Amino acid sequence: MSFNIALSGVSAAQKDLDVTANNIANVNTVGFKESRAEFGDVYAASLLAGGKTKVGDGVLTQEVAQQFSQGSLQFTNTALDLAITGNGFFATVPEITSRDFSFTRAGQFKLDSDNFVVNSNGDNLLGFPVNSDGTSASVALSTTVPVRVPDSSGSPQQTSEVDIRMNLPAGDQGKDPAAFDPDDPLTYNAATSVTVYDSLGDSHIMTYYFVKDNSATVDNEWYVATAIDDQLVDMVNSDGTDSDPTTATHSMGTNTGNGVSAAKLQFSQGGDFIGIESPDGVSTTDFKITTEALGQNILANGSDPAQQISVDFNLEPNGATPNEPTQFASAFEVTSLEQDGLPVGRLTGIDIGPDGLVRATFSNGTSEPIVRVALVRFSNEQGLTQESSTQWKESILSGEALAGEATTGTFGEINSSALEQANVNLTTELIDMIIAQRNFQANSRALEVNNQLNQTILNIR
């Protein structure tokens, strides 16, 4: 019997060495969780045996239990490197249409040839579909979809409004608005341009021409006219109807063949902006001026011909503000010129937030939520069935997989450009290896002593 007891000790010591060696071997494996050999003594007795004199029957390996403690983070320069701090696993499937879920803490992800996010085994990372505002459409594991980075472009947006802030020089001499010629800088006081966009994302140059009114009875008033791609564009009247330069109250270039309806900017004697008049001479109520529909003559690329562009001068009727145009005794200066249109955008980057939301950013300044990386947790992590490549499968002991969003409930946080290192403490493992070696040697010595005793008995004559 003592032979069997010693052999069980040798076997247990060998198992302990195996577990320790496996931990040491995977010290650089991303997402690896160390294991611990757990032993129990063996004791067998019959009804007639003397309990006070019974000796145990050795040792038995009860379980090799994985330890799901947090590993330290290693930061990288790759946005698709993901690490979980806290509770949860990434969910993956071997094929796009498969529902054979595997779970991992190893976040070394990359793009395949079809722009799907996969790990080193080619398994697809799963996420929750999202709405346009970035909220999850569903958080059930059954509704997860493979995460895919779009190869499409960012949608363009046509310009509908231009915001301008400037100073018009109070000391400039007035000019005859009827003599305006956009090709002759001597016929206008100042001009500035901004790039605007049509509904297809094509760019156009919108120019504003300013002419100080030279009428003897009028002071501190300026005409403003617009052109797009060097074609003059009429303004609409105060009631939104199209205007006619030949009959409009305010117009420019009628004597040079460059007739265009204009708006009028009015300033106080202190240089404050106080009002805008439409081409029909009526003050605007929204303090903006708007072009007529640009039409196919200007937008000849098939974009929306009904596009109109408003100009907002930020007039505050209750008093002067820094956002309004001014007429001071200084040079013409544009302090702000912004528009709300967007060109077609190229994909420039992927951002993954702590809540797992994957957002694509485009060169036109827009961003778009794509999907939210799903996290999965279990009531008993140690009950998971271990597989190769630091992956686990659901089992009866682990309980059912529960999916959810990162940073909610008991789920941890997702860190982009980071990897979770193995939770192996190399110093501890080396000490454990020395202890296992000592136990192995001691049990081997017990076998040797048993063998000597047997030989002594066999040699009795």
From TrEMBL:
Q: Where is the Flagellar basal body rod protein N-terminal domain?
A: 3-33
InterPro entries linked: Falgellar_hook_FlgE_sf (IPR037058), Flag_bb_rod_N (IPR001444), Flagellar_basal_body_rod_CS (IPR019776), Flagellar_FlgE/F/G (IPR020013), Flg_bb/hook_C_dom (IPR010930), FlgE/F/G-like (IPR037925), FlgE_D2 (IPR011491), LlgE_F_G-like_D1 (IPR053967)
Domain (Flagellar basal-body/hook protein C-terminal) spans 416-460
Q: Known SUPFAM superfamilies for this protein?
A: Flagellar hook protein flgE
Instruction: Describe the location of the Flagellar hook protein FlgE D2 domain by residue ranges.
Output: 168-341
Domain (Flagellar hook protein FlgE/F/G-like D1): give its ranges. Answer: 83-142
Q: Which Pfam families match?
A: Flg_bb_rod, Flg_bbr_C, FlgE_D2, LlgE_F_G_D1
Q: Where in the cell is it found?
A: Bacterial flagellum basal body
Against Gene3D superfamilies, the record matches this protein to: Flagellar hook protein FlgE
- What coarse category fits the chief subcellular location reported for this protein? other
Q: Which UniProt keywords apply?
A: Bacterial flagellum, Cell projection, Cilium, Flagellum
Stated family: Belongs to the flagella basal body rod proteins family.
Cited function: A flexible structure which links the flagellar filament to the drive apparatus in the basal body.
Which PANTHER family is this protein grouped with? FLAGELLAR HOOK PROTEIN FLGE, FLAGELLAR PROTEIN
Which NCBIfam families does UniProt cross-reference here? FlgEFG_subfam (TIGR03506), PRK05682.1-4 (NF004240)
What is the name listed in the Swiss-Prot or TrEMBL entry for this protein?
Flagellar hook protein FlgE
